[in-house]
Amino acid sequence: MTRVAAIARATLAEAIRQRILYLLLVFAVVLIAFSRVLSLLTVGDDVKIIKDIGLSAINLFGLMITLFVGVGMLFRDMERRTVQTTLALPVARWEYVLGKFAGLAAAITVNTALMAAAMFAVLAIRGAFDPALIVAVFMLWVELVFVTAAAVFFASFSTPIFTALFTAATWLVGHLLWSLPLLEQRLGEGAARAAVHAVYLVLPDLEYGDVRPLAVHGLDIPADRLVLATLHEAAYAGLMLLVACAAFRRRDLV
User: Fold this and answer.
1) pLDDT of 131-157, one tens digit each?
2) 248 to each of 33, 83, 117, 135, 156, how far by Cα in Å?
3) Closest CA to 102 of 228, 241, 249
4) Which string of b and e fits 182-219 if b means at least 16 CB within 10 Å?
5) DSSP one-letter code for 104
6) Could you write out the DSSP letters of every residue in 190-221?
7) Which of 16, 109, 213, 237 is deepest in the core (most CB within 10 A)?
C-alpha cells in the first residue's frame, strides 16, 4: 500500500498543477458567488435559489474536472511514457491503477470541499447557513468518486476520446435510468429492447443518491437512502476498479 500511496500523492500533486483545474474551479466559485445576485433578480425564495445553484455548480464542475483533468492525466502518463518508467520500478500494474484512482479521488475531494466552502460562505453571508446541505454535498462527492472510478475503468482499455465519452455517458444514463423501463415498453421485441434492458440492469441508478431537491427544499433525507446509495455506488466503483486492474494488466504499453 506504500507504493499505492506514493503514486496517489504524485497524481494529486500533478492534478494540482493543472491550469484547467484552476480555471474550472474559479468558474464554479464565481458562479456560486453570483448565485446571490441571481437570487435577487429571480422571483421565488432566494435562499433556495442559492442552494440549488450552489449544489448544481458543485455537481457540474466536479464532473468537468473529472473528465478534463482525470481522463487527460491518465493518457498523458502514457504519452510521456511515465507509465513505463513507473512500472520499471517494483510497482505492480494494479498498484499503479489504484494509485492513480486514489490521487484523482483526492483531487476531487479537495475541489469539492473548496466549492462547498464557497457555497456555505454565500449562505452564511445571507444568514441562511444550512448544515443539512453537508449531506447533499457528501452524496455529490460519492457520485464524483464513482465517476472517477468509471474514468479509470474506461481508460484502462480505451482511447482518451472514447474514455471521456463513455464516462460522460455513464453519468448521464445513470441519472436517466428511470426512463429506460418506459423506453423498453415502447420498443417491440428485438435486439434494441434487449439492449435497453441490459443497460438498465448493468448501470447504477445515480438518481437515487441525488438528494439535492430534498436538501434545497429543507425536506427530511432518509438515512437508509443515504446508506444504500453510498454502498450502491461504492460497490460499482469497486467492481470497475477491479476490472480496470485486470484490463490494465493485459494492456500493451509499448
Assistant:
1) 888 999 999 999 999 999 999 999 888
2) 42, 11, 37, 35, 5
3) 241
4) eebeeeeeeeeeeebeeebeebbbbebbbbbebbbeee
5) H
6) SHHHHHHHHHHHHS--GGGG--HHHHHTT---
7) 237
